[in-house]
Amino acid sequence: xxFEDLIDFxxxxxxxxxxxxxxxxxxxxxDYLKSQAASKKYKQTPDIHRWKTDMSKDKISEIQKNCxxxxxxxxxxxxK
Length: 80
What we know:
By secondary structure, the protein is mostly helical. It has 2 domains: 1-49, no CATH class; 52-80, no CATH class. Helix content is 68%, strand content 0%. It is flat and about 45 Å long. It starts with a helix and ends in a 7-residue tail after the last helix.
């Protein structure tokens, strides 16, 4: 599970996690997710994708080189 997916798509991501754990996602949890997704506080989450424009290409390349295996296992697509 990627953090970005949990923030961008909380219900879908947690459904996937619960499914992999073979645990039912019950109504109170779904209701909570829906209420949080609709709240102003949730919509004010800092831009988690900002690093793509704020970080230099050299720095991104360095991080990807040092963490390539972990990034791929976590489902990240490496930038070119």
